[in-house]
Amino acid sequence: MSELLDVRVASVRQLTPLVREFTFEAVSGDLPGFSAGSHVQVHMPGTGRPLCNAYSLLSDPQQRQHYRIAVRLQEQSRGGSRFMHEQVKEGDVLRLSPPANLFAPHSRAGHHLMIAGGIGITPFMAYIAALEQRGGSMELHYAYRSGLTDTYLEELAARLGAALHPYDGRAGQRLDIHQVLSDQPLGTHVYICGPDSLISDVCQTADALGWPAERIHWEAFAAPEPGEPFVAELADGRTLAVPGDYSLLEALEQAGVPVPNLCRGGVCGQCMTPYSAGEVDHRDLYLSDSERADHLMPCVSRGKGGCTVKLAL
Amino acid sequence: MTTAAMLSTPVYRPVLPPLPAQHRLLVVQHLALPETAYWQQQLGEEGVPVSLISLNADMEQLCGSLQQHLSQARVGTRLYICGDESFLWKVHQQARQCGLLNGEIELIRTADSRELYCVHCSTLQTIEPAPLVHCRQCGLQLMVREHFSQRLGAYMGVCNDPFAPYGPTTTASASLEEQAS
Q1: How far, rounded to the nearest angstrom, does the alpha carbon of residue A294 sit from its chain's CA centroid?
Q2: pLDDT tier at A267, thresholds 50, 70, 90
């Protein structure tokens, strides 16, 4: 596991009633560099539990003095976004995992087609900065609800001009995915960040239009959903009761059983763990059906209805 | 005796049913190939437009015409190449240069013949599948390795036995005469 970074909250801005922006600076020394599409995990102390969420870095990757993230308050929050909105103040010190990138712009794309839903705009803020420097060809389709999730809209309009295609859901403006995907020059790669429904709509439409998987890149909001409490049994015979609002990964971490992890949202494959018994509710987007027979992703997946899952840990 | 397949050995998978597409491009080595009409019909089945390009003895012309098609193309264009192995990879290379990805190119192999590259004299030659052949240019007995070069569209031929480079108990001139007869 990499060394955690100590950062100070340099500024906090409320951008919309639902979105709060945080700027972090290093407590000492320099912040590690990062590339467009990277995220950091923010460790949230004092919540009485090992809460830790991944957020995309939206600042310009060339800017090494600070990191910036934006957090949307989630109605179904297990406490992470609420903690960020209600507890974190300017001057506080937080711990971050170093930046990791699971969603980089493709280096050989001739044109970058970005599709964002709501807070899914965040990684694209860094994309746009990086692509502007490279002189990369790009367009952004941004679906939001005005006054709630229209984060950075004015700045984007000024920066992108005609390359910005805004869709205000509150005004009934709809993004026509089929139309957008059916007229893209060869060499285009598409990037999607937003709610699962948007990602699956774009992927299915692209598929039906003959887009190969190599041109389609997406990042879901990485946060485990709460579920039923269940029991995890470790190889040494210890048992852990996993509460409904804990992920298995968090329960393991709290019990002093570290598991390597990167995204905490079921997409990267880092925390893949073998298991030998128990009925698992697989909620990841990583494992194949055959792998699921004896592996699970503890960052999001859970035991079904109170059962005991035997882990090879 | 054949040498084992390697990572570079191409695998030709069945193309049917064709993957969804907005536009399909069919490039054939000969218009007269029985496969041409068959694939034209198969690929156009759901009303997807199919463009046909054929090799009229001039590879350069074919590449120019492919380039022209692809410069106007939209994502959702799929390319189907139909011909012998060496033809498949020449067109494949051109298509990759025009911006198509591997996942957008399908290869339909119409002949068993292979292209062989002699590492001793650099001669490219067409051979029938066999583990050992004599190089047409330098006469060495070559072992046909399964290592495949996509750039050359050819397998690698290396001297089979340095102690009997022209094969068991034959001389270079004899083996070349044998081939000529």
Answers
A1: 26
A2: confident
CA distance linking residue B55 with residue B32, whole number of Å: 11
Task: Compute the average pLDDT of residues A232-251.
Answer: 93
Residue A45 structure tokens: 């102390």
To the nearest whole number, what is the mean pLDDT of chain A?
Answer: 94
d(CA A295, CA B24): 40
Would the CB atoms of A186 and B73 count as touching at under 8 Å? yes
Q: Which residues contact B163 (CB under 8 A, 6 or more apart)?
A: none
> Is residue A258 scored above 60 in pLDDT?
yes
Kindly list the distances between the CA atom of residue A57 and the CA atoms of A35, A37, A40, A126, B4, in Å, as whole numbers in the listed order.
9, 7, 7, 7, 48
B66 touches chain A (CB under 8 A): no
Total Cβ atoms within 10 A of residue B168: 9
Q: What is the pTM of this model?
A: 0.87
| A19: amino acid identity, one letter | V
pLDDT band per the 50, 70, 90 thresholds, residue B13: confident
Distance CA A303, CA A243 (A): 11
**Which residues does residue A220 pair with via DSSP β-bridges, in sequence order?**
A194
Please report, in angstroms and rounded to a whole number, the separation of the first and last CA atoms in chain B.
25
C-alpha to C-alpha distance for B125 and A125, rounded to whole angstroms: 54
Distance of CA A32 to the CA centre of its chain: 19
- Give the A:B interface size as CB pairs under 8 Å: 51
Give residue B173's pLDDT band: very low, low, confident or very high (50, 70, 90). Answer: low
Tell me which chain B residues have a C-beta less than 8 angstroms from the C-beta of A207: 20
Q: Tell whether the model's pLDDT for residue B174 goes beyond 70.
A: no
Q: How many CB atoms lie within 10 A of CB B41?
A: 10
Q: Scanning every residue of chain A, which has its alpha carbon at the shortest distance from the alpha carbon of B22? A: A209
Question: Could you give the C-alpha distances from A147 to A22, A151, B82, B159, in angstroms and in order?
Answer: 19, 9, 56, 74
Beta-ladder partners of B148: B155
d(CA B8, CA B10): 6
Query: Which amino acid is it at B171?
Result: T
Contact between residue A153 and residue A144 where contact means Cβ atoms under 8 Å apart = yes
**Distance (Å, whole) CA B145 – CA B148:** 8
